[in-house]
Amino acid sequence: MKKLVVLGSTGSVGRQTLEVVSAFPEKFRVLALTAASNWKLLVEQARKFHPQAVVILKSEYYPLVREALPKEVEVFSGEEALCEVASWPEAELVVSAIVGMAGLRPTLSALSVGKTVALANKEALVVGGDLIRRVRLKTGARILPVDSEHSALFQVLKGHRRREVSRLILTASGGPFLRTPKERFSEITPEEALKHPRWHMGAKITVDSATLMNKGLEVIEAHQLFGVPYRRIEVVIHPESIVHSLVEFRDGSTLAQMSLPDMRLPIAYALSYPERLPLPYPRLNLSEVGRLTFEAPDFEKFPCLRMAYEAGEKGGFFPVVLNAANEETVAAFLSGSIRFDHIPQVIEETLNRFSFSGKPGSLEEILRADDQARRKARQIIKEMK
Ligand SMILES: NC(=O)c1ccc[n+]([C@@H]2O[C@H](COP(=O)([O-])OP(=O)(O)OC[C@H]3O[C@@H](n4cnc5c(N)ncnc54)[C@H](OP(=O)(O)O)[C@@H]3O)[C@@H](O)[C@H]2O)c1
């Protein structure tokens, strides 16, 4: 039985991870579960999966969780506790499914003691990619991608030599506003942005999919995971979300991974790698799908994708600032403080106003730059009102 720690178990990826675990109880055992504030679901999950420990980030919910669970389950709260369970000695696989930059420290904590990490938390790689690479070199820790596009690339690249790869091609559904004229972007409401045509995900990634920032973050994630230069990572819009990504090899052959859009598949592959599990979920029927279409992304209509490429190319603190500004603007949009079309404007302005120097050498430097960028973004948001 593989012993798992699930960071962010109450989220969309966390819940689907536990669905896979439920389908294969003889294969997996849950050691620890974590949430930020959804204590009721955390308690429900703990009653079902009997972990040794749970972490509720926000201390105000600690007494409720403690009271609801039997004494055998250890209950902790706070960020340090997240890092502690992420490096739990018995854990064999840590599922990193916290949303946003908040996942960086626990993910680093797991990697720095050599754990294998099933990584959904792309923001950790975007902001801490170089640091994560250094830590992995030191400890030999492995990352198994959970993001469907990166899982597709990982599956296709298996057994091939890195030097034979000429291009990585990431597919993108295009989000709910693919066909919406740009002039209407100022009227888009959070409710509209939260209706993704293909995937049911957490709120932040759903808005990122609508601006195409999600694809931009995935381009940086692909660069960090597979070491391919940005000029050889492409994005293609594929509204049906059946082809999850492709690799072109130097002989001109292009290989793809296809399946129905269902996150349980890439999650299960990361959980059981290198084995493939006999998953009990619906299968792809190509004659029912009928048509697969592809088109080039519109960088002018979706400037977040362009900014992410540029930040990735520049490296250093650029991805940290891009991500911090994005997290702040998405939160501001969801709370009704700014318009949808303000999102790229605030991010661009934050990047313009930030005084960049040097490269992030440590976690503390990343956290400091993240904090400064968030303050700048909030200031810009205030000026816009
Ligand atoms: N959803 C998908 O299909 C999908 C696909 C590919 C990649 N991803 C990536 O996977 C990650 C998770 O996405 P999601 O859609 O599952 O997000 P989500 O539904 O919003 O869930 C986020 C999880 O993280 C916890 N959390 C939130 N803020 C936290 C903090 N500051 N510290 C510690 N824990 C915190 C949440 O706890 P509470 O429930 O208590 O708030 C929840 O368990 C993201 O990086 C996303 O880009 C998601």
Mean pLDDT, as a whole number? 97
The N- to C-terminal Cα distance equals 54 Å
C-alpha Rg (nearest Å):
20 Å
Question: Helices and strands: which structural class?
Answer: alpha/beta
How many structural domains?
3
The CATH homologous superfamily of the largest domain corresponds to NAD(P)-binding Rossmann-like Domain
Number of strands: 11
What low-confidence regions span 5 or more consecutive residues with pLDDT below 50? none
Strand content: 15-25%
Spell out which ligands are present.
NADP nicotinamide-adenine-dinucleotide phosphate
Helix content: 40-55%
- Report the CATH topology name of the largest domain: Rossmann fold
Largest sheet strand order: 4-3-2-1-5-6-7
Largest sheet data: 7 strands, parallel
SSE order in H/E notation?
EHEHEHEHEHEHEHEHHHEEEHHHHHH
CATH architecture of the largest domain: 3-Layer(aba) Sandwich
CATH class of the largest domain: Alpha Beta
- Overall geometry: globular
Count of individual helical segments: 16
Function: Catalyzes the NADPH-dependent rearrangement and reduction of 1-deoxy-D-xylulose-5-phosphate (DXP) to 2-C-methyl-D-erythritol 4-phosphate (MEP).
Organism: Thermosulfurimonas dismutans
Binding site for Mn(2+): 147, 149, 218
EC number: 1.1.1.267
